[in-house]
Amino acid sequence: MKPESCDRSAQWNVFHRGPEIAVGRIVAEGPAVTRAGTTGPWPALVFPRHPVWVGHDAKPDRYLDPTVVAFVNAQSKGMRQSDQPDGECIDWVAFEGALAASMVQPFEPKRKPDPLAPFRIAGAALPPAACLQQRTLFAYCTDCAQVDPVLVEECALVLLGAALRSAYGRRPPRGGAKTERTTRTHRAMVTEARRFIAKHLESRLTLSAIAQQVHAAPQHFCRIFRSETGLTIGAYVNRLRLYQILDELPAESTSYDLAERFGFADRAHFSRHFTRLFGRSFQGVRRLLRAGKWSEMRTIVHAENETLG
């Protein structure tokens, strides 16, 4: 999405760049006009952190503030001018053209998909829930030295869906009940994806790589996977990794080593997921497994049976 030229210094930070999704931020000082030239090869969502004027002619004529999300097509020309004396901060999420067009298609079924210009709308109100999701995504990206690609890409697709629903004022039409053949196909796709994930559990998995393995569009396969498993792909990957890590606890591996080995962003990220899933800290479960405290195990099993009963 980075422009070819600007008339003042702007810092472009790219937090994640995958085969089909990228996430980043523009930071610039001062209220002077920035001539953005031509944007990059991917269409994008733009989230202004501060008020900014944008336009495609000699003078910026459209006002954006943090309550809106802007849609930017690939290779579009324009300029922007900060409405704040201390400069601008703009978050962006870019999508490969065919992916963006496939997300727009359900809202405009009669329109031929255009990977370069999938967006015919300039912007939309940013709903509170989507705003919180966007802020959470970028807080995660800025705080983690190494982000989880699957988590970032799933969040990006959720944001694009929310922005499109806000722009069009409705959800896309749902299909009818699945046929038996479709059900079998979806189950086979999910099984293949689970096998792929298990084989690459210690690798840096991406949503695009998983979807490509089953020859499906990422946003479509996200829905299939959740429908079949009850979990998002990111949640499933983390759960599988944590289950595998239980086998490692009696050994001498540290939480830092396990976090790095199994693809968690850092030890704190790993510890949060571990405690959330098992209801006990990493060290607490390790002590339990090492000491063989079967009385505690019976308590846990009893509590689980009480819940299921």
Secondary structure layout:
Blueprint: E1 10-17, E2 21-28, E3 33-38, E4 44-48, E5 52-55, E6 62-64, E7 68-72, E8 77-82, E9 88-95, H1 97-104, E10 123-125, H2 128-143, H3 149-168, H4 180-199, H5 207-213, H6 218-229, H7 233-246, H8 255-261, H9 267-278, H10 282-291, H11 294-308
Antiparallel strand pairs: 1-2, 2-9, 3-8, 4-7, 4-9, 5-6, 5-8, 7-10
Helix pairs in contact: 2-3, 4-6, 8-9
Number of domains: 2
**What structural category do the secondary elements indicate?**
alpha+beta
Radius of gyration: 22 Å
Architecture of the largest domain in CATH? Sandwich
The CATH superfamily of the largest domain appears as Regulatory protein AraC
Please describe the biggest sheet, giving its number of strands, its sense, and whether it closes into a barrel. Answer: 6 strands, antiparallel
**What name does the CATH topology of the largest domain carry?**
Jelly Rolls
Strand content: 15-25%
How many β-strands, per DSSP?
10
Q: Which overall shape is indicated by the principal axes computed on the Cα atoms?
A: globular
Q: Give the fraction of residues assigned to helices.
A: 40-55%
Q: What is the distance, rounded to the nearest whole angstrom, between the alpha carbons of the first and last residues?
A: 53 Å
**Whole-number mean pLDDT:** 81
Classified by CATH, the class of the largest domain is Mainly Beta
Low-confidence stretches: 1-8, 300-309
Strand order of the largest sheet: 1-2-9-4-7-10
Q: Write down the secondary-structure element order.
A: EEEEEEEEEHEHHHHHHHHHH
